[in-house]
Amino acid sequence: MANPALLPINLIDNKAAQARADKYMRITIDLKRIIESYRQSLFSFEWLDSEGAIRPREALEDTHRSKYDSVYAAYKSGIPLERPILGIGMLDNIEIGSRRDVLLTLYSLGIIAMDVHIPKACHDDFKPFEC
What we know:
Blueprint: E1 11-12, H1 15-19, E2 24-30, H2 31-38, H3 62-77, E3 81-82, E4 85-88, E5 94-98, H4 100-108, E6 113-119, H5 123-126
Parallel strand pairs: 1-3
Antiparallel strand pairs: 2-6, 4-5
Helix pairs in contact: 3-4
């Protein structure tokens, strides 16, 4: 699938973060740095290759390819997408707790920064990843 010209990202608050607004905050992150840390995740193999790059659409398993296609279509059409929720994993790496499909698809399309939700208690851990 050809990369579209970069369009504005239409993000809305994640329902899970909205439900606990007192526990979450929104920050803007550098996606390249996030992906470098996310490589250590036990779940990264679903979307990342052994070099840490996003797998091409064709190399994704059916479930993830379908999610990629949905996010791509929504982004291209300007339909709002839920902001991902990030956290810190057991190995002190970044984990994407919700909406991995949004974060990873948009990064694969050339988006380099985006707003995400993080637990307020983890803000210091995310400072190296902020824009």
